[in-house]
Design brief:
Blueprint lengths: L4 H11 L19 H9 L13 H28 L4 H21 L5 H25 L3 H21 L7 H26 L13 H31 L5 H28 L1
Length: about 270
């Protein structure tokens, strides 16, 4: 199981060999072609992955940069809106959180790739991140800059560690990680309700004590390993030559993990300042 249903679905399709025959039409077409046409085809240079409509690493990188830029732009707009009117913080927060939850489920389980839904998710995510970041920055000046730098550092570190083989992603680790993610997701949903009700001084279970900090460290660890799983899934998808349209799903999954990591680091830093 991957870090999210998007990667899980693609990985499962790859393991089932669904793309093993992705490419031109079958051999029956050759029966209707002349010998000269066949000779021209065989003597022509091989098509690149892009020309064949197959996924390339560049596809994923460009889509990821595009979605990340949208998150940043909308996040900046949300940041300034909340700074100008703090009363907008909670409406934007809840709209962003509930909207991304709903769209995320639709994107993950929809049988076809929907670019508008993925773009809409990024926009809602940006609004949510901008609003919550402004609130944290108001309470703990300088915390957002630290969280951003820490997120970038962890992202780069996880990529290098995965690339050189220091961090391994195996089928067993994916299954264990998948179960951990489900458990942490359920806990997080309950914890949000607890925080709204004022448990742990608004932090939920554990508060700002050692237990709360340990929970946040666990969250950062899971989000960090999620990136390694995502990198491995992208690598497998490129090697399997899946259709190019899946670059949107892969980019979406990477952005989800990156934002998750940022939010976990933001919360950890805030807990340590109490």
């Amino acid at each position: 199981m991957a870090s999210n249903p998007v990667f899980n679905r693609i990985d499962k399709e790859i393991d089932q060999g669904r793309y093993a025959r992705f490419g031109p039409a079958g051999a029956g077409v050759q029966d209707t072609m002349t010998s000269q046409q066949l000779e021209d085809i065989y003597s022509a240079p091989s098509a690149t992955a892009a020309q064949a409509g197959r996924l390339t690493l560049d596809d994923v990188l460009m889509k990821t940069l595009g979605l990340f830029s949208l998150v940043v732009v909308v996040g900046a707009a949300s940041w300034f809106l909340v700074a100008g009117d703090p009363g907008l913080a909670m409406p934007i927060f809840w709209a962003g959180m509930l909207g991304t939850l709903a769209l995320g489920l639709v994107i993950a389980f929809k049988k076809t790739v929907s670019v508008p839904l993925i773009v809409g998710y990024a926009a809602l995510e940006g609004a949510f991140v901008g609003a919550i970041s402004q609130v944290f920055e108001t309470i703990y000046p300088g915390i957002v800059t630290t969280a951003v730098l820490a997120t970038v550092s962890v992202f780069a570190g996880m990529f290098l560690a995965w690339k050189v083989g220091l961090i391994k992603v195996t089928d067993r680790s994916r299954r264990i990680f998948g179960l951990a993610i489900v458990g942490y997701l359920l806990f997080s949903l309950v914890n949000v309700v607890a925080a709204v009700l004022g448990v742990g001084e608004g932090w939920g279970f554990g508060g700002t004590g050692m237990l709360g900090i340990a929970i946040s460290v666990l969250g950062v660890g899971l989000a960090s390993y999620s990136l390694a799983v995502d990198f491995d899934s992208v690598d497998k998808a490129v090697a399997a030559q899946v259709p190019e349209r899946y670059s949107w799903l892969l980019a979406h999954g990477l952005i989800v993990s990156l934002v998750w990591l940022y939010l976990e680091i933001l919360r950890l830093l805030a807990r340590t300042r109490e």
